[in-house]
């Protein structure tokens, strides 16, 4: 398992400055926010060439919504996701973290004929089948991220994500597991990770307080033990608040996480 962090969490005036900081803190990977990334590919590649830090993933950053009632909004999301998958392939990341919808359903309730969630699952499956082919060509996976109940109504557990993955039936569709969201939605984080197995291709790390690991009550040791059991050897990226000076707190967090492994 390799520790990474999101770009915006690291102090520094340039990407090269941030990468140097990450090396000194003990990280091995960096996660990029998707917005404007396609226009930065050359800049990012140049900075990474002189660093031991590798690109891990892209976190969303697309416009529109895959499950909006407005076709133009859905098409906007599809177009942006394809552009980010292409950028991800050029950079060599694992995949693009994708949240199908935030908040409540936008599709109409046609019960008892069809519920909004039933229609969302069918629509999302059709969209992902199209995107999966593009992801295959780009060499960049689509990482479905379940969120907690306060942020979405649809994918909230790893099991929900796996249902969509199985509906699509494509190797390029995988799951991203976030310890913060799991601390709210999963009855047993370790058991959920074991059940998901190889469907999990990326991890986000944050404590129950949504601060750095070690500043809450999440049991990272049992979660990491489960990841080892399923043979997980990919990136685990910090996505959380930093309660203090990053130059002090981030190295401490790396040390804490390594002790939990």
Query: For the record, what CATH class applies?
Result: Alpha Beta
Shape: globular
DSSP summary, beta strand count: 8
In which order are the strands of the major sheet placed?
1-2-3-4-5-6-7-8
* Low-pLDDT runs: none
What is the succession of H and E elements? Answer: EHEHEHEHEHEHHEHEH
Distance between the termini: 9 Å
User: What amount of the residues lies in strands?
Assistant: 15-25%
* Name given to the CATH architecture: Alpha-Beta Barrel
The overall average pLDDT, rounded, is 96
The overall number of domains is 1
- Count of helix runs: 9
Provide a brief overview of the structure.
The protein has 261 residues and is α/β, with parallel strands linked by helices.
Please describe what this structure looks like.
The chain has 261 residues and is an alpha/beta fold. The chain has a single domain (2-260), classed as TIM Barrel (Alpha-Beta Barrel). The chain has helices at 15-25, 41-49, 71-91, 116-138, 158-168, 179-185, 189-196, 220-229, 246-260, and strands at residues 2-6, 29-33, 54-59, 95-98, 141-144, 173-178, 200-205, 235-238. The protein is globular.
């Amino acid at each position: 398992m390799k520790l990474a962090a999101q770009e915006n969490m690291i102090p520094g005036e340039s990407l090269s400055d941030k990468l140097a900081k990450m090396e000194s803190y003990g990280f091995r990977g960096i996660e990029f926010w998707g917005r404007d990334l396609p226009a930065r590919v050359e800049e990012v590649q140049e900075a990474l060439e002189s660093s031991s830090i590798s690109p891990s993933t892209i976190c969303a950053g697309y416009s529109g919504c895959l499950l909006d009632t407005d076709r133009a909004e859905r098409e906007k999301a599809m177009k942006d996701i394809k552009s980010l998958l292409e950028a991800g392939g050029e950079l060599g990341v694992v995949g693009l973290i994708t949240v199908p919808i935030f908040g409540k359903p936008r599709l109409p309730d046609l019960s008892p004929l069809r519920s909004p969630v039933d229609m969302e699952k069918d629509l999302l499956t059709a969209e992902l089948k199209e995107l999966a082919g593009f992801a295959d060509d780009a060499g960049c996976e689509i990482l479905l991220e379940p969120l907690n109940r306060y942020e979405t109504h649809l994918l909230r557990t790893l099991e929900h994500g796996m249902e969509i993955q199985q509906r699509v039936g494509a190797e390029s569709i995988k799951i991203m597991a976030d310890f913060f969201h799991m601390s709210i939605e999963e009855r047993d984080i370790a058991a959920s990770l074991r059940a998901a197995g190889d469907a999990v291709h990326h991890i986000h790390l944050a404590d129950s307080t949504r601060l750095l690991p070690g500043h809450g009550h999440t049991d990272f040791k049992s979660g990491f033990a489960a990841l080892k059991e399923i043979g997980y050897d990919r990136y685990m990226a910090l996505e959380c608040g930093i309660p203090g000076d990053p130059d002090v707190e981030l190295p401490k967090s790396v040390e804490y996480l390594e002790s939990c492994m």
